[in-house]
């Protein structure tokens, strides 16, 4: 059973930064493509960023330019560094194993203006 555990969410003022972490209980983590999604209130869940097992990254409009996804295969952990946060970044952020049904429980990010 794959488990994904997120941490690092919280409340921050606009312009601030947060770093989210997601630790995965996958023996083959170093090969696993991972992604971060977010779901704002009353909106659909959307992709923010993804990273391949080789470290190739992809960002959507939601995260491009301000967010950085990275991974530490020794720790089975993927990170999302979020800078220059805006109020519209508020939502629940989820970690996922790409193309699977495995999701973390989510971590709340609240950005106040």
Describe the protein.
The protein is 0% helix and 49% strand. By secondary structure, it is mostly beta strands. It has a 6-stranded mixed β-sheet, with no helix packed on it. Strands 1-3-8-7 form a 4-stranded antiparallel β-sheet, with no helix packed on it. Strand 7 and strand 8 form a beta hairpin. The chain is globular, with a radius of gyration of 13 Å.
Q: What profile does the largest beta sheet have?
A: 6 strands, mixed
- Note the total helix count: 0
Low-confidence stretches: none
Could you spell the SSE succession in H and E letters?
Answer: EEEEEEEEEE
Mean pLDDT: 96
Structural class comes to mainly beta
Helix content: under 10%
Read across the widest sheet, the strand sequence of neighbours is 2-10-9-4-5-6
Portion in beta strands: over 45%
What general form does the structure show? globular
The first-to-last residue Cα distance is 40 Å
- Total number of strands: 10
Oligomer: single chain
Compute the gyration radius: what is it?
A: 13 Å
């Amino acid at each position: 059973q794959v488990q994904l555990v997120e941490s690092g969410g919280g409340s921050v003022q606009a312009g601030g930064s947060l770093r989210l972490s997601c630790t995965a209980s996958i023996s083959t983590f170093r090969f696993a493509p991972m992604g971060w999604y977010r779901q704002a209130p009353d909106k659909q869940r959307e992709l923010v960023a993804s990273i391949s097992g080789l470290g190739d990254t992809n960002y959507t409009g939601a995260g491009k330019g301000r967010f950085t996804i990275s991974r530490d295969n020794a720790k089975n952990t993927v990170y999302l560094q979020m800078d220059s946060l805006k109020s519209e970044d508020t939502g629940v952020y989820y970690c996922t194993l790409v193309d699977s049904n495995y999701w973390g429980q989510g971590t709340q990010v609240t950005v106040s203006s």
